[in-house]
Design goal:
Blueprint: E1 2-5, H1 11-19, E2 23-26, H2 33-39, E3 43-48, H3 56-61, E4 67-70, H4 80-85, E5 89-91, H5 98-113, H6 116-124, E6 142-146, H7 150-161, E7 165-169, E8 181-182, H8 186-192, E9 195-198, H9 212-217, E10 222-226, H10 235-244, E11 247-252, E12 276-278, H11 287-307, E13 328-335, H12 340-350, E14 355-363, E15 366-373, H13 379-387, E16 391-397
Helix pairs in contact: 1-11, 5-7
């Protein structure tokens, strides 16, 4: 079994796959189009980060592909519906780099409030600019968090600890942490916040969420931060607001179009502006976070190919079966229709197989059942299941020694 890892995924992942006896091809940059299609020949597991796009055409080309691991938070770079239709599991790391992103955002809030970007630049130019003009403490300022998920909630907790007042807006019903206050609309948050920090996901509906209208609605001389998705923000509009002085500073970690590999040229309308921090999508790029992500996602991929577990899969029904000793295991992904499980169990009973464990879950139009039996299944059982119109795939595992 072959694994292809792209975009400098932490060596922890490659080590885990090699220990499991898999062949690993690890590459530093991303691939796209024909390059990616060619590289997928014979590949069973694909590991990517945020800069590799896995389309339906790519999935069609990956004839041997069993699963995709997104070694990051987001999965919008993968066509999840197409992957599900083909029975290809997709996993990500929804929690592993949360703290790293939060610490970056908090550091940026302080740096922008103190206008440290300008101070350090002038010092490098040999200019001693000792002045408190435009420099503020963050204590008692209001932080407005747009998107109160895993990162938004942890930012809320840490921000309160350093004296920020926190308000948040989310389209989902989220429980407020600590003394944070939910507001009823994005407009209400923008009118009240001294710092606006975006933490929304990459779903298509969020494209263009923040543009000229939203920047105009922000408090004069407030700060803007985006460490979520590049396509969410109109950066030309942000440039105009910074030049006019309406926005006092900004920190941007994500961009609509990002270079493919280390050292490639970077272009943005925000380059060269005072009190603007630009970072190359490094919110989760700490040694600690990348190591944890490498461990977490590789564990999920190995659990899937080694025992059929789909726990925390983002596109297939989630099943985390136990591992009874001496069991013969069958994973059965199928169209979710009435009577499939009953028909399966009748087949097993008629063949004389004793079921010693079974776990079933459905998701959308698919069902996934993992069945453990005390002996290998009869050939006619497998033939009949493979012929069934609802069958997507069958996979088998021998008893663990």
């Amino acid at each position: 079994m072959k694994v292809l890892l792209l975009e400098n995924i932490h060596p922890t992942a490659a080590e885990a796959f090699r220990r499991a006896g898999l062949e690993v091809d690890a590459r530093p940059g991303s691939l796209s189009g024909a390059e990616l299609v060619d590289a997928l020949e014979g590949v069973s597991l694909l590991g990517i980060r945020s800069n590799t796009t896995v389309t339906a055409e790519v999935l069609d080309a990956g004839k041997d592909l069993l699963a995709v691991g997104c070694f990051c938070i987001g999965t919008n770079q993968v066509d999840l519906a197409s992957a599900a239709q083909r029975g290809i599991a997709v996993f990500n790391a929804p929690f592993s780099n949360t703290r790293s992103v939060v610490e970056l955002v908090l550091g940026e809030i302080i740096a922008l409030a103190r206008r440290l970007t300008e101070k350090t630049q002038r010092m490098h130019e040999g200019i001693w600019d000792k002045s408190a003009k435009g420099s503020h403490e963050i204590r008692r300022r209001t932080l407005g968090i747009v998107g109160y998920g895993n990162i938004g909630t942890q930012l809320s907790n840490v921000a309160e600890a350093v004296g920020l007042r926190v308000i948040f807006f989310d389209t989902a019903d989220r429980l407020a942490h600590g003394n944070a206050t939910r507001v009823g609309s994005l407009e209400e948050l923008l009118a009240e916040a001294d710092v606006v920090s975006l933490h929304v996901d990459g779903r298509p509906g969020n494209a263009g969420l923040f543009g000229a209208e939203q920047f105009a609605a922000m408090k004069p001389r407030s700060i803007f931060i985006n460490a979520s998705r590049g396509m969410v923000v109109d950066y030309d509009a942000l440039r105009e607001c910074i030049l006019s002085g309406h926005v006092a500073g900004a920190a941007i970690d994500v961009f609509p179009v990002e270079p493919k590999a280390q050292g490639d040229a970077f272009e943005s309308p925000l380059r060269g502006l005072d009190n603007v921090i630009l970072t190359p999508h490094v919110g989760g790029s700490t040694a600690e976070a990348q190591e944890e992500i490498g461990h977490f996602v590789s564990t999920k991929l190995l659990g899937f190919v080694g025992g059929g577990s789909t726990a925390l899969s983002v596109n297939l029904p989630e099943v985390m079966p136990p591992n009874p000793p001496g069991a013969y295991r069958m994973g059965y992904l199928h169209s979710s229709e009435p009577g499939v499980l009953a028909g399966l169990n009748k087949l097993l009973a008629d063949s004389g197989a004793n079921v010693i464990g079974q776990a079933l879950s459905t998701r959308g139009e698919q069902g996934y059942v993992v069945t453990d039996t005390d002996k290998p299944l009869a050939e006619h059982v497998l033939t009949e299941l493979n012929r069934a119109p609802q069958t997507l795939w069958l996979r088998f595992w021998e008893p663990q020694v």
